Amino acid sequence: MLNLSRWKVILVILSVVFGVLFTLPNLLPEATRAQLPGFMPKKTLNLGLDLQGGSSLLYEVDLVALRAERLTNLIEDVRKTLTDEQVPFADLGQVNGAIVVRITDPAQFDKAQRVLRENIGGTTPSGARDVAVTTADGGRIRIALVEQAFEAAASSAVDQSIEVIRRRIDQLGTREPNIVRQGRNRISIQAAGESDPEKLKSIVGQTAKLTFQMVDESVPLQDAANGRIPPGSELLPSEDGLTPVLLVRKRAEVTGEMLVTAQAVFDSQTNRPAVSFRMNGQGARRFAAITSQNIGKRFAIVLDKRVISAPVIQGVIPSGNGQITGNFTTESAEELAVLLRAGALPAQLKVEEQKTVGAELGADAVKAGQLSTAVGFVAILLFMLVAYGFLFGGISIIALIINGLLIIATMSMTQATLTLPGIAGLILTLAVAVDANVLIYERMRDELRAGRSVLASMDAGFSRAMSTIIDANVTTILAALIMFQFGAGPVKGFAWTLSIGVVTSVFSAVLVTQVLLAWWFRATRPKTLPIV
Amino acid sequence: MKFWPLIKLLPEKTNFRFVAFARYAAILSVVAVLGSLFAALYPLKPPCGGLHCGIDFQGGTVLEMSTAPQAVDIAKARATLEAMNLGDVQLQTVGSPSSAAVRFQTPEGASASATVDNVKAALTRALGQVTFQRADVVGPKVSGELFQAGLMALGLAIGLMLVYIWFRFELQFGIGAVVALFHDVILTFGIIALFNFEFNLTTVAAILTIIGYSMNDTVVVFDRLRENLRKYKRMPLKEVIDLSINETLSRTIITGLTAVLALGGLAIFGGPTLFGMSLILMFGIAIGTYSSIYVAAPVILLWGVKRSDEEAQPLKPADARG
Q1: Which of A98, A116, A515, B319 has CB 3.0 to 4.6 Å from A144, enough for a Cys bridge?
Q2: Which GO biological-process labels does this protein carry (chain A) (predicted)?
Q3: What is the CATH number of domain B60-138?
């Protein structure tokens, strides 16, 4: 107690300065905060969505659908490759998650295998093929996805989805939401202050996969609707207002990736909303080729497996510029343009979890949180005063106030999220912080009663209580770490508050109390302690 | 004698013979644990058994709506919802009569978020001016994972505590502490079942906090016990335990009271979300304090500890009687 080392005093003073400086922004109105000089911290507590109001959406990238779609595309590629190379084949389809095709002319089996190896699938970044072509019994060839390559593709699909979502939301111009990947195939979107996420959901949730597919007119639509669908074609719902369904070729001639830009416009002839687009070089060439070969036929503009419109090709379109007309309102044309500009999601997204808190409810929660924190805090202070008197109680109160400052300062500085359960964590931390003081004081009383001098008792109080304090707090930290690892959202906030609180409370209860008691001892040289 | 500071009122030295009552306490504990297990598990309905399962763990949707200033027409809202074929629908007012909470499961195969939109639209049509203050949707996949993660967190917490105490003390202490933890966690589940509190992620956080606090309390007693075992090498274990509990008693009371006071403020002023949590924490702290004295320490007594100059001395049957 007498030889109080200087670094302890300096540390305590520094921590108080830190605590006050970083807590201060929370007490100032926003206008004053903006005028603070540059070196002053300006960050306030980062309130969680449950306190601030807002929406949190958890999406899952549908990897099952991604796999199915990949297989469907491969089947069409196989069909086209074999047809182009004039290899006769039959029984093309999926068997146990792989594609199997029977080559009907045994003489061409090797050739078929070769052309399939060369043309089907792509390469992974490491240079390996992403599909495996193997031979099977009965003149069959089996084409399977390489699992590793699919995992890599799935992972990049998730990353790409995040990119696309970010681009889409940027174009909406709302407050910047927080978009992060979660686990293997989940994406979490947190939009503070957004209490009606419908707009957000409609802009995020759409795959927006745009394809131009030829309309299959080889079979009357009525027959197709009754189930006579030719191979390589599919029946899609139509939203052009003319027919409920339409039979189209499965093969996508031009895809949305080939678009350079899209704009909501008014059609000059009908004066109705439409979306104009421009294609890149590759798209323009393909578009020109298709339009020149199919004059007089219809092609379908398909968005997410729904036909928007199916115009008749009037003439060659060489420039790659075009216009989509359909059943649009001004808003839906604008939305489609945004989606097309931002690009399609590489896979379907499903909402797995959605939490929305209205701003009003959040404000109520903040009020309740403030009031209950204040009441709890005052209750602890009064109790310590009553239990240990002005001096020792007062010292623990000062330590507790410094502790509170440090917690709020650290949380503001690290921008840790304060949630409603986090407030409970805060209160409980303050209550348990007193425990360290109590342990020290009780130890001092024991030592004094055992006949030691005041000075020796005070020293022993600190040194012997220390191991208990550490043991007792490590257990709380362990519990908090587990919550942090396993918990989601509000629970994480709770765990973080608890962890910060444990560290600052050990610091303030031990060091701050020690410094204050040492000053008191030097000033008064007491003969006994007022708590015995 | 002065009455303030209060600490002076506490007798300098207490000589309660805690261990003497350990047998009755043990009976009480066993009965309470069995009762809690029954209440928490029965009926054995997955995933939450006898507990009131929150959507975090069961999946489904909770909507909170307000028709302020008018009162919610519960009958009309119920009729609307029942017409929608949503299965198990729960509807009740929360706080004021002008706000209500709706909870329902997403029908098999339907999109959860589309269902919510439909329900919102239908309620708005039926009730007129409605504002939706909260909409929480949890899909079946996520809820399953959250439930697993919650259970794993509890298991891992208890395991880690055992390892830490084992490392810092010795195995017998660790076992005593872990038996006490199981006791606390099971009894807390019993309280949750008894009061029909919702079992969700926040509840798991509360239980983990109780685990932390209960360990904290046990460690303080154990610390003193270890010290006294070294100090009084010839004193029978029973008496050392009594002495250690008595010596730490004033700390136990003061810390427990502070925590309960602070949580009381939270329960009264913190609104509905914090009410359940702070009540669970309060009960947990009471249970944790009790278990440090009557579960953790007696387990050590049964098991015996290795004292520095003699072999482990488990309690002989004769001692146990009296």
Answers
A1: A98
A2: intracellular protein transmembrane transport; protein targeting; protein transport by the Sec complex
A3: 3.30.70.3400
